[in-house]
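[recover] target loaded
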């Protein structure tokens, strides 16, 4: 009987009308929800706030501070590594267990990443757990306690990170140390002898000196700007500009660490412009893509001028151009991984390719397309997007919208990239080398 009533024309017509009305309401609601473009503001206390509301189901929040290995001195060398390890330990308000447990219950994850010029704390959570996530994020950043017994228990983790470094990472760290010596030459990793030497007083002093509102920014993806601005009230940092950064002068040199084995890892680079010089920096990044950034096809042998130079000599080798840019300086060159027996020929050929690099219109046009694809692919990851916004804010106090990138990259000419290649050809090289260096030539012979 009930099934007959449901199937009656009157009931069916009424149901269709109701469903149609609900669909119309749902459609109108979807139309009202619009993405909020990039917004940047500066609060009265000097804290920068940047947000992108894309209505993602996952909200990504971050606090970036202008403090990294570049901020270290001889007395506290390696303290930035200790600070990175200490992220998530007990604060003045919460225990390490409480932070971990409550974030876990909220389905959130927190991570601390670091560069030579910044430290970034990020947390990701579903939109309905944003309030919980931001509470613990701001607490971890602004209320760190650095309890001695927790710091001592963190020493094995530092040792594990040091032992887990890849030879390529070690070569790049040696390259920075040889190129800049101090400042940007300070390693992202603590020296083994310094592990466990950074105490409560030293870490607290470093944080109070560098963690100020004028040196920090609150970032968000998947959150409205008004909500993020309110969250800024939870971030308790001292006001002020903090210490000014000391310029890192490029010196040039080489550092070699013989570890044996069958491979040699060699990083070669010369100085290039920092990001404050936008045009020269972008030209160097285009030149990096002309030189080749490894294989773009699975199991490929690489592309670009550097890979061609390496393939022209005997032996198996992987070569990629590297471009490490910072606020006022940078490095442009190549990373070489090769069999030890043929390392001399391969490194010599790559160095010669760097010295004689030239570009054509077609190569620059292709490099522009590759660079746009690289940037857009990177910005698909909200964690990378947050770090990119933070790095720009710390350098310039503003963030360039993604839709302005094609215009910026398209405005560069072949002459700009050729000028970068000419500067590279006459620049003083630096080298960091790790592995079996029996045939790797010394820098003065390249």
């Amino acid at each position: 009987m009930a099934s007959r009533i449901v199937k009656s024309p009157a009931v069916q017509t009424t149901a269709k009308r109701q469903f149609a009305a609900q669909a119309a309401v749902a459609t109108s609601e979807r139309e009202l929800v619009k993405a909020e473009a990039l917004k940047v503001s500066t609060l009265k206390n000097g804290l920068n706030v940047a947000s992108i509301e894309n209505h993602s189901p996952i909200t990504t929040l971050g606090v970036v501070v202008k403090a990294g290995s570049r901020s270290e001195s001889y007395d506290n060398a390696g303290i930035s590594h200790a600070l990175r390890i200490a992220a998530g330990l007990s604060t003045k308000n919460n225990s390490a267990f409480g932070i971990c447990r409550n974030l876990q219950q909220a389905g959130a994850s927190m991570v601390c990443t670091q560069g030579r010029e910044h430290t970034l704390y990020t947390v990701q959570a579903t939109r309905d757990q944003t309030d919980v996530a931001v509470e613990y994020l701001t607490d971890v950043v602004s209320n760190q306690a650095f309890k001695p017994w927790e710091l001592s228990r963190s020493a094995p983790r530092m040792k594990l990170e040091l032992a887990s470094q890849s030879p390529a990472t070690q070569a790049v760290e040696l390259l920075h140390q040889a190129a800049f010596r101090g400042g940007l030459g300070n390693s992202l990793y603590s020296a083994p002898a310094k592990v466990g030497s950074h105490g409560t007083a030293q870490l607290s002093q470093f944080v109070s000196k560098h963690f100020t509102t004028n040196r920090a920014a609150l970032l968000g993806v998947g959150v409205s700007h008004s909500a993020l601005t309110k969250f800024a009230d939870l971030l308790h940092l001292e006001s002020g500009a903090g210490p000014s950064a000391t310029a890192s002068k490029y010196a040039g040199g080489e550092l070699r660490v013989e570890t044996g084995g069958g491979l040699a890892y060699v990083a070669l680079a010369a100085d290039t412009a920092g990001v404050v010089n936008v045009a020269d920096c972008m030209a160097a990044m285009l030149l990096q893509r002309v030189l080749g950034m490894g294989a773009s096809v699975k199991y490929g042998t690489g592309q670009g001028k550097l890979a061609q130079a390496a393939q022209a000599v005997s032996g198996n080798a992987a070569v990629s151009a590297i471009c490490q840019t910072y606020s006022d300086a940078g490095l442009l060159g190549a990373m070489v991984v090769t069999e030890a027996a043929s390392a001399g020929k391969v490194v010599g050929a790559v160095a010669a390719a760097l010295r004689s690099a030239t570009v054509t219109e077609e190569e620059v046009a292709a490099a522009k397309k590759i660079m746009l694809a690289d940037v857009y692919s990177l910005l698909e990851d909200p964690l990378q997007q947050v770090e990119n916004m933070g790095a720009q804010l710390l350098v310039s106090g503003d963030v360039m919208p993604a839709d302005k990138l094609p215009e910026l990259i398209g405005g560069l000419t072949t002459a700009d990239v050729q000028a970068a290649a000419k500067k590279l050809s006459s620049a003083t090289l630096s080298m960091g080398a790790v592995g079996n260096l029996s045939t790797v030539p010394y820098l003065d012979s390249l």
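[recover] notes: Residues 291 and 304 are 5 Å apart (CA to CA).
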